[in-house]
Write a structure and sequence with these properties.
4-stranded antiparallel sheet; 1 helix; 18% helix; globular
Amino acid sequence: MCTYDTTKLTVTGSGKGATGWFTLRDAQIYFDHPVHAPYDHSLNIDLLNAELGPSARVALELDPHSARDLAESILAALDRAPAGLFPASTGTAAAR
């Protein structure tokens, strides 16, 4: 079953693809059929810069348990980082 429930957001960062590093602009997160992973469904994350074409894309297809572990680990790493290290524009440091 396809959910077609896609979250799109603007991101700031860098990704490394087949042709090297590029600036990331967008992220798309959805739970659907993977293209390559050996599961019926996976959490799919696409990090990309559409202005640079299809080669400026990093794709993840994670089983649900790995996706949750990754999300929790990201939040834990951010929580452990000293507040003064966050750029003022993210608003993250102000939330602490």
